[in-house]
């Protein structure tokens, strides 16, 4: 079995375990890492501090939290026997993925909307987005959940698969740890603007290519020409270099209008319009979930096909 076929098998097994079990309800390693991140931030992020001090402390925090685990992953990849390394890769990739967890969060919102329970829908969407959920109407709740499904499909699913395929156990671990740091430190508030800048920029770098592969995946599986046009025309106006292509392409693929003004704690953010078509509803959330899931199976199919082709021509 060639290397690509082995990697494809690991990816498929991790995806299947995630489908069967979902995220661990207790003792998830990322929860423990999150506690360490919070403790490091309290220790290092002394406010007030000037730009240079905050930036250096942020870099130090990333290094202290990430480098020991990456070094351990590199060492394990070098010394573990083949079969034991495969088991470790499947388990770590499974823990890094969140296909079922993402879908469960989205379905909780869409089910509440279908039941006519806007209050419950707001509560559920407030668990997955940072905007002020209590001020959202039904289309606003639907848009927030749909955007979350599309964007987190890139961050929590496709980027993990990508970095495992590129760099194995150290790669997927690096991406997931940095993505967690960005989620906790990557805010543009007075406290995190400089301290979290390195983590946010590193996450942008790690997600740059996976985000565009995700956008291409959405375009292939949906309304292709509309998706590609929305990606080209609308993504540059978005404030995130990676979320813009993903959500513009995803909205175009679904034939729905996303983006626009949204309430946050700091006030109304007048965001660009993404996609085109009808206003989002409960069914749009479910369509976004299907798009992510279909994308995962497309990636796995491509991997196995190319692995089989390499085996046929005798390449390892």
Automatic annotation (TrEMBL):
Stored InterPro entries: Cobalamin_biosynth_CobD/CbiB (IPR004485)
UniProt-annotated location(s): Cell membrane
Transmembrane region(s): 55-76, 83-103, 156-178, 296-315
Gene Ontology cellular-component terms listed: plasma membrane
Signal peptide: none
Entry GO MF terms: ABC-type vitamin B12 transporter activity; threonine-phosphate decarboxylase activity
Keywords in alphabetical order: Cell membrane, Cobalamin biosynthesis, Membrane, Transmembrane, Transmembrane helix
Role description: Converts cobyric acid to cobinamide by the addition of aminopropanol on the F carboxylic group.
Protein name: Cobalamin biosynthesis protein CobD
Species this chain originates from: Marinobacter confluentis
Designated gene of the protein: cobD
């Amino acid at each position: 079995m060639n290397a690509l076929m082995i990697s494809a098998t690991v990816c498929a097994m991790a995806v299947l375990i995630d489908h069967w079990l979902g995220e661990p309800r207790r003792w998830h390693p990322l929860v423990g890492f999150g506690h360490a991140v919070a403790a490091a931030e309290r220790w290092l992020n002394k406010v007030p501090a000037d730009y240079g001090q905050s930036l250096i402390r942020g870099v130090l925090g990333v290094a202290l939290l990430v480098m020991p685990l990456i070094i351990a992953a590199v060492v394990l990849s070098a010394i573990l026997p083949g079969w034991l390394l495969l088991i470790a890769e499947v388990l770590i990739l499974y823990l890094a993925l969140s296909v079922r967890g993402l879908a469960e969060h989205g379905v909780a919102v869409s089910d509440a909307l279908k039941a006519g329970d806007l209050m419950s829908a707001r509560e559920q969407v407030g668990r997955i987005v940072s905007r002020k959920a209590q001020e959202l109407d039904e289309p606003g709740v639907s848009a927030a959940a749909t955007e979350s499904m599309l964007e987190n499909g890139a961050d929590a699913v496709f980027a993990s698969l990508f970095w495992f395929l590129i760099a194995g156990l150290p790669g997927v671990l690096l991406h997931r740890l940095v993505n967690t740091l960005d989620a906790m430190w990557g805010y543009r508030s007075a406290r995190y603007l400089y301290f979290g800048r390195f983590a946010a920029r590193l996450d942008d770098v790690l997600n740059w290519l996976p985000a565009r592969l995700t956008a291409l995946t959405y375009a292939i599986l949906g309304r292709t020409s509309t998706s590609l046009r929305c990606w080209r025309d609308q993504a540059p106006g978005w404030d995130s270099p990676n979320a813009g292509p993903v959500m513009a392409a995803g909205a175009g693929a679904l034939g729905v209008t996303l983006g626009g003004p949204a309430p946050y704690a700091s006030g109304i953010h007048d965001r660009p319009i993404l996609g085109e078509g009808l206003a989002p509803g409960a069914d749009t959330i479910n369509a976004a979930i299907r798009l992510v899931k279909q994308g995962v199976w497309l990636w796995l199919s491509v991997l196995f096909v190319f692995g089989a082709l390499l085996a046929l021509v005798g390449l390892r």
